Amino acid sequence: MQIINGFNHIPTITHAVATVGSYDGVHSGHKVLIEQVIAHAKARGGQSVVLTFEPHPRITLGRAEGLKLLSTVEEKALLLEQLGVDFMLIIPFTLEFSRLSHAEFIGQYLIDRVGIEELVIGYNHHFGHNKSGDYDYLTTNIPTLKVTQVEQQRVENDKVSSTVIRTALSEGNIELADRLFGHPYIICGQSDSNGFCATSQYKLLPPKGDYQAVVNGKSDMITICDSGIYTSVKSNKITIEL
Questions:
Q1: Domains identified in the chain, total number
Q2: Which domain holds residue 204?
Q3: Which of 16, 43, 84, 105 has CA atoms 20 to 30 A from the CA of 65?
Q4: Do residues 200 and 72 make contact, with C-beta atoms less than 8 angstroms apart?
């Protein structure tokens, strides 16, 4: 997977099929949508693109109080690559960018700069300034762009959403969270000489305590504390699977 930072140096993308969103945690509901992006791109003889934001829009807009994220941009890239996405385009979410209308975003950025031919969106997707753009706008006003909408997903009658997963993790219910994720909970970082891995202030961790995990592919017991994680692995690059 190729990672693109911003819109200034976009390589040629063949018959691009794309989706746009935070995709926090890349859970099983996201997976269904992203797999459609990949399948539709292959059917066109083209390439799949996932556009996401960094930093999270709430941080830029000064509404980050209480924000807890399921994935950093590094973790998101790891999960998207595992799904087989061709391009991950990271949109620098600035105040200026936040003021773009939905028409400007679709026309000037997605179509003119990325060259997308098809957009796959979730059932409740909104975009542009004040989230004023949606499926109805796209299908009514941009007839040259094919739009596919994906319905809400459930796993064994449980609604799949980042909010539900955050609640499960906050309560220490790793089993439910992983079932809704469709994969183990991923934490990427680096550990110091004491095996301590500091995490972002916005990264959601389960309650403090000891947990069985897989660290860099090997079974390990980790300890979660207020500011990060202790592990027996000392490395400048670690991947923890809970």
A1: 2
A2: 186-242
A3: 105
A4: yes
